[in-house]
Design goal:
Layout (H helix, E strand, L loop, with lengths): L1 E2 L21 H20 L4 E5 L5 E6 L4 E5 H12 L5 H23 L13 H20 L4 H17 L9
Parallel strand pairs: 2-4
Antiparallel strand pairs: 1-3, 3-4
Helix pairs in contact: 1-3, 1-4, 2-3, 3-4, 3-5, 4-5
The structure holds zinc ion.
Length: 176
């Protein structure tokens, strides 16, 4: 899982009006999740299921790889929609949100690479959390390139997220 912590503590209502008035809300939600899946599939070692739903406070998302599933908070989904649309997004926020999505996708990859073995998440050091952060960092430039952010923006987002990960507490933090 990824705790939102300070990174996503900025409060705000989830806005899922992804594609405006062109499509009904249900379709917009489906479009959003399919876009997020496409963006994160390389980090997950393939397609997976993704739902946006209410999660406990401070949860940006969680992975349930044994169900092929990533769950993101409504807040995260709403903000990721803005990242996809280049709407009102800072470098830090784009990095945090892409990082949240990719972190959970990385857990799906960890599970698959372990031969669908859930005990991969039982290791007492929980270093799989750090590994997921590093995979998220590694996948970030590709995601932001796909969304047509500028090289300058992508480089800044990468450096920002690299610093975030380096400064996080265990088991998330450290140098990649
Ligand atoms: Zn995690």
């Amino acid at each position: 899982m990824a705790l939102t912590g300070a990174r996503l503590a900025r409060s705000g209502a989830a806005v899922l009006a992804l594609l405006g008035a062109l499509v009904p809300p249900a379709t917009a939600g489906a479009r959003l999740t399919s876009t997020m899946i496409a963006l994160a599939s390389p980090t997950a070692d393939g397609p997976f299921r993704l739902v946006c739903r209410t999660l406990p406070p401070r949860f940006a998302g969680q992975a349930l790889p044994w169900r092929d599933l990533v769950e993101l908070s409504q807040y995260s989904c709403g903000r990721i929609a803005n990242v996809i649309r280049h709407r009102d997004v800072s470098v830090a926020e784009a990095a945090d949100l892409a990082g949240s999505l990719l972190h959970e996708a990385a857990h799906v990859a960890q599970y698959r690479e372990a031969g669908n073995d859930p005990t991969v998440f039982s290791h007492p050091t929980r270093r799989f959390e750090h590994d997921a952060e590093c995979r998220a960092l590694a996948g970030m430039p590709r995601v932001l390139r796909t969304l047509h952010y500028t090289r300058h923006f992508i480089a800044a987002a990468y450096r920002y997220f690299e610093r975030v990960v380096a400064g996080e507490p265990r088991p998330y933090g450290g140098r990649c």
